[in-house]
């Protein structure tokens, strides 16, 4: 980046940010203001990176939620022991509920990309690290693609509080993704067929399915922003999945922001129609 004489690189990035289209209210990015990295609950300020921004266009913008299922989001789910801390700290369950609710009230399209494993998936001959773990603990298990036997209340089922929004006849539930990203399901097709080119992304889990969806959708030509407190990640003794994803959300997506600001921006966009 070529900077005018006497212009610091930090100031140059701030100037670049100021001319971008910012579609939701965020903190000021003046060069004099204290710098701050993105967090789960706050957008970044003067963090040394451009701020491309994300403008919500009701005609072309949709919410995409990954894996809003019991095995991630319920205290009874098989992963709660490692994701519960991040979910609780970020208020992920409540914030995903707020996204579903504002979509229901405004009419914004919602797409859910679920994660299911059927009996034949357990015969795979090789797996990655957390695929092995998911299969070993029976995560998202269903007996067959053509039956809902045992689905109600299972780990693969939706969190109960989201069911009125997902089962409302308007929300689009795609075919299941099988590893982490939407490369193995029909999400991109469904978005394209609905005329969607801009995605507000949340769901579980941050550095796995959510980040993989962000990456894949961007590679497919969609504009993506990530709602940073509407996701969460596994935290173990040696690794913090959420912290890992937050860096990549900031470096790759067009924008990152919290649920409160995103909900306000959605309402504003629909009021201005």
TrEMBL record:
It comes from Altererythrobacter xiamenensis. It comes from the Bacteria. This is Nicotinamidase-related amidase. Residues 61-239 form the Isochorismatase-like domain. The lineage of its organism: Bacteria, Pseudomonadati, Pseudomonadota, Alphaproteobacteria, Sphingomonadales. Residues 27-50 are annotated as: Disordered. Residues 27-44 have a biased composition (Polar residues). Keywords: Hydrolase. One of its GO terms (molecular function) is hydrolase activity. Pfam families: Isochorismatase.
């Amino acid at each position: 980046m070529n900077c005018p004489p006497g212009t610091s690189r930090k100031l140059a990035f701030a100037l670049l940010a100021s001319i971008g289209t910012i579609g939701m209210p965020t903190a000021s990015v003046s060069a004099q203001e204290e710098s701050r990295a993105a967090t789960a609950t706050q957008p970044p300020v003067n963090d040394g990176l451009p701020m491309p921004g994300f403008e919500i266009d009701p005609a072309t913008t949709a919410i995409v939620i990954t894996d809003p299922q019991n095995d991630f989001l319920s205290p009874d789910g098989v992963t709660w022991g490692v994701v519960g801390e991040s979910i609780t700290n970020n208020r992920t369950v409540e914030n995903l509920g707020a996204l579903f609710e504002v979509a229901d009230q405004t009419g914004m399209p919602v797409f859910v990309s679920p994660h299911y494993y059927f009996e034949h998936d357990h015969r795979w001959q090789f797996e990655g690290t957390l695929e092995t773990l998911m299969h070993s603990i029976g995560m998202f298990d269903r007996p067959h693609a053509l039956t809902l036997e045992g689905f109600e209340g299972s780990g693969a089922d939706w969190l109960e509080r989201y069911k009125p929004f997902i089962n409302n006849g308007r929300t689009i539930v795609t075919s299941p993704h099988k590893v982490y990203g939407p490369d193995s399901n029909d999400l991109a097709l469904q978005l394209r067929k609905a005329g969607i080119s801009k995605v507000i992304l949340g769901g579980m889990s941050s550095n796995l399915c959510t980040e993989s969806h962000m990456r894949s959708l961007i590679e497919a030509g969609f504009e993506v922003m990530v709602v940073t407190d509407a996701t969460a990640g596994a935290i173990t003794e040696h690794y913090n999945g959420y912290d890992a994803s937050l860096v990549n959300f900031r470096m790759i997506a067009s924008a990152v922001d919290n649920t409160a600001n995103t909900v306000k921006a959605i309402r504003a966009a629909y009021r201005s129609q």
